[in-house]
Write a structure and sequence with these properties.
- By secondary structure, this protein is of the alpha+beta class.
- It has two helices and four strands.
- It has a two-stranded antiparallel sheet. A two-stranded antiparallel ribbon has the order 2-3.
- Strand 2 and strand 3 form a beta hairpin.
- It is globular and about 25 Å long.
């Protein structure tokens, strides 16, 4: 399952800048992950200072 970003996201962009497949982009309220592009590597979750990213 792909990772998802919850409402704890502060839109710092660390997840997007560290994603090896560029599957993360700014959304309306916080960053969002394209489930079809996500390779489930976990790099985004490892770099999130708010722990706002988890596997769906």
């Amino acid at each position: 399952m792909a990772y998802t970003i919850n409402d704890s996201c502060i839109s710092c962009g660390l997840c997007a800048s560290n994603c090896p497949v560029e599957a993360i982009a700014p959304g309306d309220d916080h960053y969002v992950i394209d489930a079809d592009a996500c390779i489930e590597c976990g790099t985004c979750a490892d770099n999130c200072p708010m722990e706002a990213i988890a596997q769906a």
